[in-house]
Specification:
With about 240 residues, this protein is an alpha/beta fold. The chain contains eight helices and ten strands. The protein has a domain of about 170 residues: P-loop containing nucleotide triphosphate hydrolases (Rossmann fold, 3-Layer(aba) Sandwich). The strands form three sheets. The chain has a six-stranded mixed β-sheet with strand order 6-7-8-3-9-10, sandwiched between helices. The structure holds adenosine-5'-triphosphate. The site of adenosine-5'-triphosphate has 12 residues, from strand 2 and helix 1.
Length: about 240
């Protein structure tokens, strides 16, 4: 449970009774109307925020009750983040941005070089590695950010509206990259999105309404178009405004 604003009449119960398990190698989308608690849920899992009660267990560790210092280590080694705006450092080249988590972890230079080339190839950004973030397109910047998020092989990649700032063509390229990451590296991905098209690339979609799980749907063996139609059907049943 997550309550904002402690016990008074003005308190907001942002999450209530939400329980979910994400398997290693799974990709899961979280959808729901504005204000339903998606970002709160993602932030609790990301250890950016703490639940008022309950546990968040990642790879066997309860991160909701970890001390600050251990938490910083945990975030650095076990999580990868992708935001709506790529959040790249403009004073570093794209290559240096991707390398950052490995540089901080003091990995060997030869390993850093090799691993960076490897992820850049799989996300199709090898040709812009030596440019600065302001010299590349929005779609490329977002794929560079995705490279940075996965380069240190985190247990979990968390994405908040990763396609929010992209046009449909670049969204498709990014989502196909996620699919490939998931398939080739068994990367576990949890993304918050308003976009049924983005959600349809995942194995499973969770729908949240008023801080509780409304329902979930699994893609199974169906093709993406069929799953996309089902996600849209659930959105229309769920209602509640702008869950496009
Ligand atoms: N820091 C905060 N202090 C108080 N209330 C908050 C805080 N953050 C979020 N809330 C409230 O908690 C509820 C859930 O918010 P949250 O941001 O998780 O929703 P969301 O589903 O991500 O919405 P959106 O799609 O609009 O980003 C809302 O009622 C919101 O107003």
């Amino acid at each position: 449970m997550k309550v904002y604003g402690g016990g008074l009449a003005s308190a907001t119960r942002a999450l209530d009774g939400v329980s979910l398990t994400v398997a290693k190698g799974e990709s899961v989308a979280i959808m729901g109307p504005s204000g339903s608690g998606k970002t709160t849920l993602l932030n609790c899992i990301a250890t950016i925020d703490r639940p008022t009660s309950g546990e968040v267990v990642v790879d066997g560790t309860d991160v909701a009750h970890m001390r600050q210092r251990a938490l910083a280590d945990f975030r650095r080694t076990q999580l990868g983040f992708i935001f709506q705006d790529s959040n790249l450092l403009d004073t570093l080249t794209c290559r240096e941005n991707i390398e950052l988590p490995l540089t901080i972890a003091r990995r060997k230079p030869s390993f850093i070089r090799e691993r960076t080339e490897q992820v850049a190839t799989s996300l199709n950004v090898s040709e812009v590695l030596d440019k600065y973030p302001y010299q590349v397109s929005g779609g490329q910047a977002q794929r560079i950010a995705a490279c940075r998020a996965i380069v240190a092989d985190p247990a979990l990649v968390l994405a908040d509206e990763p396609t929010g700032a992209l046009d449909s063509k670049n969204s498709k390229v990014l989502l196909e990259s996620f699919e490939r990451l998931n398939r080739d590296y068994d990367t576990t991905i949890l993304m918050v999105t308003h976009d049924a098209y983005a959600a349809s690339y995942c194995h499973r979609v969770l729908f949240i309404r008023d801080g509780s799980l409304f329902t979930e749907v699994r893609r199974g063996d169906r093709d993406r178009q069929e799953f996309f139609a089902e996600v849209n059907r659930v959105i229309s049943v769920m209602g509640g405004g702008d869950a496009r």
